[in-house]
């Protein structure tokens, strides 16, 4: 079909087929009328243009048959589009009962996914062939939760809840090793400020058994791993990796400085409200402050823009684990 070959990734949810069907219907209908109307226009121009020896015919004032035809046919077509669009919209609005519920919290410029057992992740993980409801929230401005392969998109609105749901039809791979998956893409589809373009994440669709195992492990990162390993997982899940490279990549792709090989080194920072930089050392308290109050001191040569990680977003024990990880990366 046209929609999923030209405009979208392959269909991966139960609603994708009808969304694309309606898209294609509207597209081909428009194409048909475009060709028809332009065709008649060209034909009339050639037939009736003003030239020597051609006398102007009086312009017709009224043609009832024609007028009824051009009112009734489009009305029927618009009615058909409305019927299919509206029934599918209603289906997409209301999640089936007993859907698995994932909370989605959008913020500038991060996504957090929270699962019923307390697990949290930065990339989205869902089971295949199961209704999954997303309860959406925003901590600051309008964001929009958009997964093209599922053909779902819904705004995340500050101060209120919105929701959408999906039933994925294909897994993205098997096992818990993320490198054996070909994840789908999730985007923020509402321009939300300076770093809007980093608000994209991966979507993993698991076999049911794999998902159960994943969500169980994810709920207990700190218990099931050494602090260093837990810190590495959190660094990815909490969105740090979107803004900081750990391989020295200092390009504009990453708004924040690279964080490998920094432990114990000195840097120049400008305290808020001051114009003269001071020298600080990357140690435990500096990292903690960089996370809790990123705008209190700005690294010289950088712009403010780091997410403020409140204790709800990142617990104290999690900062400790991230510190262990930062110490370990050379
Ligand atoms: C939205 C992008 C963004 C995210 C997400 C982000 N940071 Fe940052 N970070 C920055 C920017 C930009 C700076 C430099 C400006 C400043 O000093 O605040 C920075 C600075 C830092 C610094 C000081 C670096 C130095 O060389 O002195 C540390 C440490 C740090 N971030 C750690 C983290 C950790 C840990 C996380 C995840 C919990 C994280 N950041 C998430 C953008 C981000
Ligand atoms: Cu956004």
UniProtKB/TrEMBL annotation:
Enzyme Commission identifier(s): 7.1.1.9
Keyword NAD in annotation: no
Gene3D superfamilies hit by this protein: 1.10.287.90, Cupredoxins - blue copper proteins
Function: Subunits I and II form the functional core of the enzyme complex. Electrons originating in cytochrome c are transferred via heme a and Cu(A) to the binuclear center formed by heme a3 and Cu(B).
NCBIfam families: CoxB
Protein name (Swiss-Prot/TrEMBL): Cytochrome c oxidase subunit 2
Any one cellular-component term (Gene Ontology): plasma membrane
Stored PANTHER family: CYTOCHROME C OXIDASE SUBUNIT 2, CYTOCHROME C OXIDASE, SUBUNIT II
Reactions catalysed: 4 Fe(II)-[cytochrome c] + O2 + 8 H(+)(in) = 4 Fe(III)-[cytochrome c] + 2 H2O + 4 H(+)(out)
Family matches, as InterPro entries: CcO_II, CcO_II-like_C, Cupredoxin, Cyt_c-like_dom, Cyt_c-like_dom_sf, Cyt_c_oxidase_su2, Cyt_c_oxidase_su2_TM_dom, Cyt_c_oxidase_su2_TM_sf
Compartments where located: Cell membrane; Membrane
Organism: Blastopirellula marina
KW Transport (keyword) present: yes
Pfam families, A to Z: COX2, COX2_TM, Cytochrom_C
Highest taxon, organism lineage: Bacteria
Bilayer topology term: Multi-pass membrane protein
Biased amino acid composition, Polar residues: 262-279
Cofactor note: Binds a copper A center.
